[in-house]
Design brief:
Layout (H helix, E strand, L loop, with lengths): L1 H27 L3 E9 L6 H20 L4 E8 L10 H6 L5 E4 L24 H14 L1 H8 L3 E9 L3 E4 L13 E4 L13 E4 L2 H9 L5 E4 L15 E4 L5 E9 H5 L3 H34 L5 E4 L2 H10 L3 H11 L4 H14 L12
Parallel strand pairs: 1-2, 1-3, 6-7, 6-8, 9-11
Antiparallel strand pairs: 3-10, 4-10, 5-8, 5-9
Length: 363
């Protein structure tokens, strides 16, 4: 009887040990590898792209490891247009050529029209966090904001702002009258800021402005200070006219909907947790570097900083037609809640303490 008992215990021990070994092999030897491609049309000197590379990706990896998940992401990274140009990354994400893309929403007022509300309401706030906080609130409360991205088979992981816009020029610009007949380049939605001023708007982007100003294609361009040093813009356009058109929501990190759906639920959760921190780092970084950039370029003997009075800024703002009301009406005609978005945006920035030069929604 004791012999049978001993044999039974031996069998139980062997079976138990075998099960333990199988479990151990299964839990550590079958790590799931997920291949994800991240791309941007601009170089990682742009803070939003730099943080995608240096914060978002490693932080996702860190949190996956900390959670003990049997998942490893194999990242393929392609920046500076090596896989998609700045204006084409939205389509690269749509077609799943890339899984995660840096999409400059400023270039897509036709494809992501509701993201342009800040651009049709300039001279509102020079605080990046203010405008992006309000935009995030719109995304949380108005379903149509997210549906814009879904139309292109992607979700918005995180939006992002950029610091306030000024004019860089090859000659001094002190007032609005100085731009009459002058070719001035600007990105997408910002082209409308020249309506009513007599300036000649020219579509452009970060990759074009240095050579464009150097070769005389245009005399000036509208851009934010955090780009002055990385792109050496003041070498060719040494006059900085501080019109302070306002900080803007202008970019988004997006992900292909199918790629996101295939992630394990726990990894999806990590993506959602890291994304808003990425946005906060982006906004704070732009605000800080904007001030630093202005301070550093002001020390250069070749650079002339031109302070623009509130009266001159108001003159420019009032010279334009009511871009915001025009935009809201055009959105309504398309079945989109343009009026609601405009009023919510303006109420949001005013509630945050902004004092707009022009209350676009109340005229």
């Amino acid at each position: 009887m004791s012999s049978i008992l001993r044999n039974t215990r031996s069998v139980i021990f062997v079976v138990g040990l075998t099960a333990l070994l199988i479990f151990s092999i299964g839990s550590t030897g079958h790590t799931k590898t997920i291949n994800l491609t991240v791309a941007a049309g601009q170089p990682p000197v742009l803070l939003g792209i730099k943080l995608l590379r240096d914060y978002f990706i490693p932080e996702v990896d860190r949190r996956i490891a900390a959670a003990g998940l049997d998942v490893k992401i194999k990242w393929t990274q392609a920046y500076a247009g090596s896989l998609c140009k700045a204006t084409k990354c939205i389509f690269a994400v749509q077609d799943r050529i890339v899984d995660i893309g840096f999409v400059p929403t400023v270039f897509h007022p036709d494809k992501l029209p509701l993201e342009s509300v800040g651009f049709v309401a300039p001279f509102v706030s020079d605080q990046v966090k203010v405008v992006t906080d309000v935009m995030d609130d719109l995304h949380k409360t108005i379903p149509e904001m997210g549906k814009q991205y879904q139309k292109y088979n992607q979700i918005r992981l995180a939006g992002g702002g950029i610091d306030t816009y000024h004019i860089l020029s090859t000659f001094p610009i002190h007032k609005m009258e100085d731009v009459k007949g002058v070719k001035i380049s600007a990105p997408g939605a910002a082209l409308a800021w020249m309506r009513g001023t007599g300036a000649v708007p020219v579509q452009g982007n970060l990759q074009l402005w240095y050579n464009g100003a150097k070769t005389g294609i245009y005399k000036a361009f509208i851009i934010f200070p955090s780009t002055f040093l990385p792109f050496k813009f003041t070498e060719v356009a040494p006059n900085v006219s501080k019109f302070n058109f306002g900080a803007q929501y202008a970019q988004a990190a997006t992900m292909n909907m199918d790629s996101f759906a295939k992630l394990p639920i726990a990894v999806q959760k990590i993506f959602k947790e890291v994304a808003p921190i990425y946005r906060q780092k982006n906004d704070g970084g732009y605000q800080a570097f904007s001030a630093k950039s202005m301070m550093l370029v002001a020390k250069k003997p070749s650079v002339k900083i031109i302070d623009i009075s509130d009266n001159e800024r108001r003159k420019w703002a009032m010279a334009m037609p009511n871009l915001a009301k025009e935009w809201a009406q055009s959105m309504e005609k398309k079945g989109l809640p343009g009026n609601k978005i405009l009023s919510s945006y303006m109420n949001g920035v005013r509630k945050a303490g902004a004092k707009p030069i022009r209350n676009w929604d109340k005229e």
